[in-house]
Amino acid sequence: MAQNGDKTQSPEIKEPSPKIPKLHQDENGVQPPSSLSFFKVKKLSDKAVLPSRASPLSAGYDLSSAVEAKVPARGKALIATDLSIAIPEETYARIAPRSGLACKHSIDVGAGVIDADYRGPVGVILFNHSDVDFEVKVGDRIAQLIIQKIMTPEIFEVDDLESTIRGACGFGSTGV
User: Would you report the helix, strand and coil content of the chain in percent, each value rounded to 5?
Assistant: First the structure.
């Protein structure tokens, strides 16, 4: 069961500003060039919660549930956030677990890659590795979204690859 303990914060931690400014377009629908590096978020329902960072140095933006749901024991569920996003080119958004849910309730996240050209609703796949059903309520923080730079070099087919000291040894071979 989701606990309120996850939502409480000590007094010395400042809450993120609940007012997030909207980007404005000019009369032709064009946004200023500097907006290309913004993380743009669209609410798809009144139950959607804008992503927020818990502290100024947080790597991830907390994602919240827009629905009530149950993640069955030893099972999984797709949880709607009722958000669509646009992130800068040459980045991707990675949906990652929240450490408190992982530690206290054995809740993990799966299939967490959102490409920069995806504009559909963001859903979070939660895996419950415990023997107890996990209840999700509207507004519960269920995962975090981390925007990461990526490199997508061109692919070149070759006949051979350079050799290295490690070579083809894998699956624990470096610790032997």
Answer: 10, 30, 60
Q: Is the pTM of this model over 0.85?
A: no
Q: Tokens representing 22?
A: 């909207």
pLDDT attached to residue 28 = 66
DSSP SS3 for 79:
strand
Assign a CATH topology to domain 41-155.
Answer: Deoxyuridine 5'-Triphosphate Nucleotidohydrolase; Chain A (2.70.40)
Closest CA to 124 of 69, 77, 67: 77
Identify the residue whose tokens are 């377009």.
25
Amino acid at 67: V
pLDDT tens digits for range 9-55: 444 544 454 555 565 566 666 655 554 578 999 999 999 999 999 99
pLDDT at 174: 77
Q: Which residues contact 35 (CB under 8 A, 6 or more apart)?
A: 23
Residues in the chain: 176
What residues does each domain of the chain span?
Answer: 41-155
What residue type is 59 in one-letter code? A
First CA to last CA distance, the chain: 43
Three-point CA angle 48, 99, 152, nearest 5°? 75
Residue 28 or 152, more confident: 152
